[in-house]
Amino acid sequence: MTTVRITRTALTRGALAALSGLLAGFASLTFAELVSAAVRPEASPVTAVGGAAIDRTPAAVKDWAIRNFGEDDKLVLQAGILLTLALFALAVGLLALRHRRTGAAAVLLFGVVGTAAAVSRPDSTGLVDGLPSLLGAVVGAVLLYVLVGRLTAPHRIAGEQEHEAGWDRRGFLIAATAAAAASTAAGAVGRALNGRSAQDAVASREAVRLPAPDSPAKPLPAGAQLRVRGISPFTTPNDTFYRVDTALVIPKVDAGSWRLRIHGRGVRRDLEFTYQDLLSRPLIEREITLTCVSNEVGGPYAGHARWIGVRLSDLLKEAGVKSPSRGGPANQLVARSVDGMTLGTPVEDVMDGRDAMLAVGMNGEPLPLAHGFPVRMVVPGLYGYVSACKWIEDIELTTFDDYDPYWVKREWARKAPIKTQSRIDTPKPFGRPEAGTVMVAGVAWAQHRGIEKVEIRVDEGPWRPAQLAEQGTVDTWRQWSYPWKATPGGHTLTVRATDRTGEVQTEKRTKTVPDGASGWHSVVVTVE
User: Fold this and answer.
1) Exposure winner among 154, 165, 209, 470, fewest CB in 10 A?
2) Which residues are paired to 510 by β-bridges?
3) For the CA atoms of 16, 17, 19, 24, what is the dihedral angle to 10 degrees?
4) Contact 147, 23 (CB under 8 A)
5) CA–CA separation, 173 and 327 (whole Å)
6) How far is residue 315's CA from residue 392's CA, in Å, rounded to a whole number?
7) How far apart are CA 393 and CA 390, in angstroms?
8) C-alpha separations of 500 from 445, 450, 462, 503 in Å
9) 229-256 pLDDT, tens per residue?
10) How many Cβ atoms sit within 10 Å of the Cβ of residue 208?
11) Which helix (H) or strand (E) holds 306?
């Protein structure tokens, strides 16, 4: 009977040791969050470690994550980090029950990892970014040492043998409860303080009143939007516009303190602009469809908006920049975001007459925070990873030989013109439409070239021309439809597009890496 009681005591102490590890990990994170309020929100451990993990993840793995988790990929990553930390904390707590100092030292290891991740990020401001992780780990290590001490210190209780009690129950409960309360409070205060900087950004955005554009967009043709149920809207609402980037925490930038610098090779004099400087310049308004290079054939990462901004070529010319075709020494424009992201864009493409801009507005309102407020780049005809720098703050003129931007270092192509693509929006894959006339419809795009023709094939039959909606501009996608006389049974519908240069969308299937997916989009349906 005594043996059973000792075993139960050992199991209880083991469970409480594991709990001590979790409390220590929780304290580390929450106190680090509090310290990050004095440094910057991006220096908090989960954000820093998550960002470092993204930086070191192979391109194929990132592509897999986007394909399987979509815009929830960052949430999945953060959940994975927290789960890993929880398992680590449990193991450290059990280790500390036998080796108290070693367990506390293991918590400090967490701080070292977080510190290394924070200071290695592209947007790091130096060693100070490591303080939240380091100080949070110290708090966690001390807490674990104290809690496990309550589990290992002899504590005789009247009427019991010392080996049966063997630890300070009351002292442990008091210490654990106090630690949980203090950690929760620290986390709440830290989040509140970090939220204040976000409030400044939100307030600055709400105060913006976009001027009327000096060069407004031409009205869209009346027939640009087809009245077909299930087709994508021609203009994508801001709140449903796709978002693919590496920012675990959306940068919150106060427009009042924002600055943009232009410098580098071929720049006669460096230029710096405030947000108000850009709003005071001649603004253009254009209809432009964007596409992410991570978009699989038939994928959702394409969207259309009406953008307002300043011509980028005008700013570059003002700085004395010449395109390579006119003798300029720089052939690459490196755009840097406030979070350290770098994108490389061909200078020739920016200055060849297309409507490349520094955008300040999207669909009639200031840029949403998630889409780059206060300023982002938009370059028609290029995939976003070489052209659509959000939260931009620096433009450097250089060469492709001299500098590899973020994605090029990760096996993506240096130049990335958008490929001619088309997509079936309706009927959906594995749909079960009724026999009779079924409207097949979708969108096609070949930005900066335009869509000339879309064709549909049923099973292995001949290609049939689809009916095209009106083309907005060569920089917009184009809707199409095809009235299919559906017969009962299983069928495969396939679409392909031809752009205005005569290039037919290729059948050859390629992955998104290194320069965008290709191939025909097909859906399988069963007609009833």
Assistant:
1) 209
2) 518
3) 140
4) yes
5) 75
6) 14
7) 9
8) 11, 6, 22, 7
9) 999 999 999 999 999 988 888 999 999 9
10) 17
11) strand 302-311
Cα radius of gyration (the chain): 29
**Local structure of residue 83 (DSSP, 8 states):** H
Q: How far apart are CA 456 and CA 424, in angstroms?
A: 10
- Distance between CA 138 and CA 144 in Å, rounded? 10
**pLDDT < 70 regions, the chain:** 1-7, 62, 153-166
Contacts of 158 (CB under 8 A, 6+ apart): none
In whole angstroms, give the CA distance from residue 236 to residue 289: 9
- Secondary structure class of 261 (helix, strand, coil): strand
Edge-first strand order for the sheet with 436-445 is: 421-426, 436-445, 478-486, 467-468
What φ, ψ does residue 264 adopt, rounded to 5°?
120, -160
Closest of 473, 466, 465 to residue 445, by C-alpha: 473
Name the nearest CA neighbour of 70 among 244, 203, 253.
Answer: 244
CA distance 410 to 431: 38
Query: Is 394:343 a contact under the CB 8 Å cutoff?
Result: no
Which pair of structure tokens corresponds to residue 5? 């009681």
Placement of tokens 């947007």 in the chain:
123
Contact 450, 468 (CB under 8 A): no
Q: How far apart are CA 193 and CA 328, in angstroms?
A: 47
pLDDT value for 7: 67
**Confidence (pLDDT) at 77:** 79
* Amino acid type, 221: P
Would you say 168 and 15 are in contact if contact means Cβ atoms under 8 Å apart? no
Summarised one tens digit per residue, pLDDT across range 249-283 is 899 999 999 999 999 999 999 999 999 999 999 99
Identify whether 324 is preceded by a cis peptide bond (ω within 30 of 0): no
Query: Are the CB atoms for 248 and 73 separated by under 8 Å?
Result: no
pTM for the full model? 0.84
* CA atoms of 126 and 214, how far apart (whole Å): 43
- Beta-carbon contacts of 133 under 8 Å, excluding residues fewer than 6 positions away, are 32, 43, 45, 48, 110, 111, 113, 114, 115, 117, 118
DSSP letters for 463-528: -EEPEEPPP--TTS-EEEEEEEEE-SEEEEEEEEEEETTSPBPP---B-STTT--BS-EEEEEEE-
Rounded Cα gap, residues 35 and 22, in angstroms? 20
DSSP SS3 for 35: helix
Beta pairing class for 357-362 and 376-378? antiparallel
Output the DSSP codes for 266-286: T-SS-EEEEHHHHHHS--EEE
Residue that is written with structure tokens 């290992």 in the block: 152
